[in-house]
Amino acid sequence: MPGFYVREQVPFDAAEDSEPEPDLAVVRGSPRDHRDAHPKQVALIVEVADWSVTYDRGPKASRYGASGVEDYWVLNLPQRQLEVFRDPRPDASQPFGFGYASHTVVPADGIISPLAAPQAIIHVKDLLP
Fold this sequence. Notes:
129 residues, mainly beta, tt1808, chain A, 6-stranded mixed beta sheet, two-stranded antiparallel sheet, 3 helices, 8 strands, 36% strand
């Protein structure tokens, strides 16, 4: 997608005390824009989950929601599906005080479009090994 680039397993500046390293982060701009500092905002985060599904749905989702990540995807390998979290909201029951109002499960034969590029169509099966 023009105007975006993908970062693999490198930090983003989620909060003053937190720099998580998502499996994939789609960031606006170019790598040069973030040469001197990690990006503070991302257009999309994707975590690839095998054994970490519960953690990725829970504490990690809460951290990303608290950081304002609007589009967070968990590629759930054991169940061969994509879990899409959108619309971060305050939620005192979550570890970082935020959760997501929307949690949608897209099966392997489904399609999804990122919020930042609604014209893009991604087949979930193409994301799965």
